[in-house]
Amino acid sequence: MPRSTIAEADWKVLRRIHPLALERYCERTLADIERVTHNRSQSTHQRYLEIFKIIEQRDREMASIFNDPKRSNALTMLARIRSDGLLTEDEFSDLSQETRSAIELLLGAR
């Protein structure tokens, strides 16, 4: 079982990639909203309701992934970021082998 906290070097990697992954998450959300906005087959009201639903759902997801970045939940946070495709392979390779293995274990070694 992976230890509950990560090494200092991996913590520094997380601190560096956290805002990058958050930016990617927001870009993805805005792209989804843009698709809805340009869907002329729906009424303006339907598009508004769909955008509202997207924002509500994504806000909850964003909070569960990105809020409260501390070492005690860093592995879980990194696993969620990785699982959601918000971590590049280069960023992932910046982590220690121990942390990468722990993340893969948390994700079920896909």
**DSSP E strands, number:** 0
Unreliable stretches covering 5 or more consecutive residues: none
The helix-and-strand class reads mainly alpha
Helix and strand run: HHHHH
Report a brief summary of the structure.
The protein has five helices and no strands. By secondary structure, it is an all-alpha fold. The two termini are 17 Å apart.
Structure in words:
With 110 residues, this protein is an all-alpha fold. It has helices at 8-37, 44-66, 74-83, 89-93, 97-106. The longest helix has 30 residues, at 8-37. It is elongated. The mean pLDDT is 93.
Write the layout of secondary structure elements.
Blueprint: H1 8-37, H2 44-66, H3 74-83, H4 89-93, H5 97-106
Helix pairs in contact: 1-2, 3-5
Short descriptors:
mainly alpha, 0% strand, elongated
